[in-house]
């Protein structure tokens, strides 16, 4: 615990740490203010009933065009059915931004949270070598395993702190600017129109986003520990994050693609139903990610424990 406290204090002594938190807050607050401004302009577009009638008319025109794919036709038919259901049962739509819709928007910023955590993971070990403080750190009567574990746990604690900031700030801004909202989100499930469980979906999205968060952090921690280069760790991790989809698509014709962690790290594909590779399941993805996570940790610890710090 003492080691973690020391690492936590060292982390917050860096201006970059405060800058990352400030930047995260800004990218939540500023878009919120912009959305509030445009919400005020859209308030004069008429009642929700008029908007739904216009939506029905537009959807029917799209369906009558005969230029839609089967998938698009199903989508417009469902949206038309939902709009007709709203009018028939006096169920208002959520035309303006609400608390939950704003928090859903802010959940997309978890990519930024992952980036900031990757930066910390990449530098928390390599910076000790570049500044030469690693020699002083390892002269203490503490095992190298405990030293590295404290750095890893500090990294994840910082990431969880950023996730908490994301949730708390987006909830506060959303409630302050938009309120709870009066509309109801609807969806079609098994041919029946039901109220969408927006809060459950939002919570599930946060949980599933942990897949990419954990794997990216562990990979950056691995590269930073092995090569003692934070820039290499950050660059390589972000390169794989942004090109992972293309790599998976390129390898999709081969069975080996099912055994690459990039195929499974984005667990939100199970919420959206848009799978990167056909035939994968949640248990299989979690198994693959667990294997790679253990592999990353074994390499990180083995390298750090055996490394000659005088070199």
Automatic annotation (TrEMBL):
Keywords, alphabetical: Membrane, Transmembrane, Transmembrane helix
Transmembrane helix among keywords: yes
A Pfam family that the UniProt record links to this protein: ABC2_membrane_4
Regions that span the bilayer: 20-38, 109-131, 152-182, 202-224, 231-252, 284-305
GO cellular component terms, semicolon-separated: plasma membrane
GO MF annotation, one: ABC-type transporter activity
PANTHER family: INTEGRAL MEMBRANE PROTEIN-RELATED, MEMBRANE PROTEIN
Name by which UniProt lists this protein: ABC transporter
Species whose genome carries this gene: Lysinibacillus macroides
């Amino acid at each position: 615990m003492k080691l973690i406290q020391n690492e936590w204090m060292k982390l917050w002594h860096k201006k970059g740490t405060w800058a990352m938190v400030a930047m995260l807050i800004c990218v939540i607050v500023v878009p919120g203010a912009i959305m509030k401004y445009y919400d005020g302009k859209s308030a004069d577009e008429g009642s929700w009933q008029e908007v739904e009638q216009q939506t029905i008319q537009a959807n029917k025109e799209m369906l009558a065009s005969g230029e839609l794919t089967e998938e698009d036709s199903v989508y417009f038919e469902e949206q038309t059915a939902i709009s007709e259901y709203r009018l028939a049962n006096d169920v208002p739509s959520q035309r303006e931004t609400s608390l939950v819709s704003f928090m859903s928007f802010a959940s997309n910023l978890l990519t930024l949270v992952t980036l900031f955590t990757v930066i910390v993971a990449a530098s928390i070990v390599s910076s000790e070598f570049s500044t030469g403080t690693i020699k002083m750190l390892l002269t203490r009567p503490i095992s190298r395993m405990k030293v590295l574990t404290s750095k890893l746990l500090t990294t994840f604690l910082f990431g969880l702190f950023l996730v908490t900031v994301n949730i708390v700030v987006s909830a506060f801004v959303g409630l302050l600017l938009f309120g709870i909202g009066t509309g109801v989100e609807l969806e079609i499930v098994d041919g029946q129109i039901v109220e969408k469980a927006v809060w459950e979906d939002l919570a599930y999205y946060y949980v599933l986003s942990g897949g990419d968060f954990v794997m990216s952090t562990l990979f950056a921690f691995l590269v930073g520990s092995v090569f003692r280069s934070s820039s290499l760790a950050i660059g390589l991790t972000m390169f794989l994050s942004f090109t992972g989809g293309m790599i998976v698509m390129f390898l999709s014709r081969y069975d080996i693609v099912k055994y690459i962690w990039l195929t499974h790290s984005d667990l939100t594909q199970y919420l959206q139903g848009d799978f990167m590779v056909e035939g994968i399941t949640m248990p299989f993805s979690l198994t693959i990610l667990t294997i790679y996570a253990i592999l990353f940790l074994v390499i990180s610890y083995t390298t750090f424990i055996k490394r000659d710090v005088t070199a």
